[in-house]
Amino acid sequence: MVLATRHIAIAATLLAVTPATAAESIRFAPHRAVYDITLTKSASGSGVAGMTGRMVYELSGSACEGYTQNMRFVTRMSSQDGSETINDLRNSSWEEVAGKRLRFSTMQYTNDALVESSQGDAKRDPKSAVADVDLVKPAESKFKLPSNTYFPMQHAEALIRSAKSGQRLLAANVYDGSEKGTKVYLTSAVIGNPAAPGAAKTTANLKDGGRLAAVSSWPMSISYFETGKDKQDAPPSYELTYNFYENGVTSDLSIDYGEFAIRGELKELTFLPENACAPSEH
Q1: pTM for the predicted model, two decimal places
Q2: pLDDT tens column, 128-174
Q3: Where are the domains of the chain?
Q4: I need a labelling partner for 188 at 20 to 30 A (CA). Which of 173, 201, 226, 279 fits?
Q5: How many helices (H) and strands (E) does the chain have?
Q6: Pick from 109, 105, 103, 71: nearest CA to 88
């Protein structure tokens, strides 16, 4: 994990890139992935005694028509006093290729009660690359995102492109519309050595495990920091570690929140139909 004392130094030395249209687009494979969630670490005083759950992620679309992401993340957390809390996060978004536009909707439930939601539309100016956000929920507002802000699929493309070029460090500001729709994270990514097709560990009983095994992958660790002068020396809000395949599938998922950490084991994988881009569209 990136240490808090290294936050400023890392942000200054990592290659911070500005979103731009790349000559060679990264093509992600539409798929549905199911992960079983378990607790791997719980510090004394965290209040988390146990956790189980499931995350279902679905990616559809293509590089020419845009990508749609749907995710549902449900966990049952038990505290040290024996009480249980069910958290249900639902996220849906559509992103136009090259980060031109992002439509998003996020809902967070706790014990079946809606506790937080965000919904909006972000459009990027083709000349300045500044994005105008029209937020509908939790309250109507309009604001701008700097030109160096990535949308989620745009960031995923940058990670794969960096990995394929041999770049091992990447810093990027990322906006996905979560956290009441106003938060931008500074991310610091460390990309490991590539695993050639067939070298990465895959689960034998996955429906499409054979197809996944034929794709190159990289281990990645991404720390998510809150932005702002008062946050410069703060530790990351969380750290995400996973094995990222060239086609967009992730495995060996781990999320470290500091006081506790969880693991997501890829249990089901199904590749979905993909629409080919016409020559004029790409």
Answers
A1: 0.86
A2: 999 999 999 999 999 999 999 999 999 999 999 999 999 999 999 99
A3: 4-275
A4: 201
A5: 3, 15
A6: 109
